[in-house]
Amino acid sequence: MDGVTDVTFRHMMATYGQPDVTFTEFTNIHDICHGSRAGWEPLRYSDCERPIVAQLYGKDPALFYKAAHVIGELGFDGLDINMGCPSKNVASSGSGAGLIRTPELALEIMASAKQGLADWANGQTLEDIGLKKAALEQAKDRNTQPWPEPEQPPRRFIPLTVKTRLGYDSVVINEWSDCLAQGQPEVISIHGRTLKQMYRGEADWEAIASAAQHIKSRGILVLGNGDIRSRNDAVSRIQASGVDGILIGRAAQGNPWIFQEKDLIRNATHNPNPPSLSEASVSLETRFQMMINHATLFESFNESPRFPRMRKHLGWYCSGFPHAAAMRANMVKTNNAQDVKGLVEEYMSQHVLTEAEAVSASS
Ligand SMILES: Cc1cc2nc3c(=O)[nH]c(=O)nc-3n(C[C@H](O)[C@H](O)[C@H](O)COP(=O)(O)O)c2cc1C
Question: Whose alpha carbon is nearest atom 2 of ligand 1?
């Protein structure tokens, strides 16, 4: 999620939740190919996030071809093309969900990206295609802080995947997914809303289910997405729609443990009468430590004027425990990790939780 799932957020998810697969924020192919400092930012990652997929957006097949080489070179495990972003700047210029209106271009982009991944796997270098190696070295350097450099996997053909929506202003997902299937991506992920809906209303899982049948009959995996808020949501949506898996976005904000114990979900989906699953939880102490760790990590990656971008995460963590609202109100005014630590210490000194409160805080 643009503006949310940066490297520090994803590191927290990997540490405390361990999702099966993680996607970067969407990244502009122009920025990648021109190697601008800011352009590389969303592509920083640490090894603990693997498998990690880089998500790109744009509408120029030639640039996708080049960008695919960069994604291979940076050691990602997959390349995902965004065909679902509804934002005006992106979609009205023909990228993101705008591609739903230009299916031929969408197929051309997929073919080009795939060819780029294949040529890179077969040994073609960045110099061969006219990209500056120096810019990439700089990107890799930046990637190493504060962890060791991510291990460079051997050159191999990494999978191409696509994430999209149900349609532009009406639901056309069956025809649209038939078209996408011609490009033979490994996975098609579907957010159950049209562009016109943005994030309004409920995700339409019946439409996802219908498309899933089309897509799976072509031997392509399908991931459903939209409004999964709990393990029980995950189980019931997978069972009812027949998707191969689900993607979780907003419910992971301040809540990495939603990804814990995925085997419970996997087992329940095979059970015709699945048991009701309790939500995973952590103690209040762990939650507070997580807030401090996240803020500290954020600081180590960013100049201090950027700290206000961290505040929303702190607000999301402040939920579900006694006096959380008051703490949230203070957290969203913090300017550095030290402030966060101070507020946690203040809370601990002011509130001696009873055993019952501490338990409810962790659920
Ligand atoms: C702030 C924000 C930024 C997002 N950025 C992206 C993005 O960069 N790429 C993408 O594929 N989807 C993006 N999305 C959409 C989400 O990935 C997801 O499809 C949508 O929120 C529905 O899933 P959820 O109900 O689990 O959040 C974004 C959503 C939000 C709220």
Answer: 1
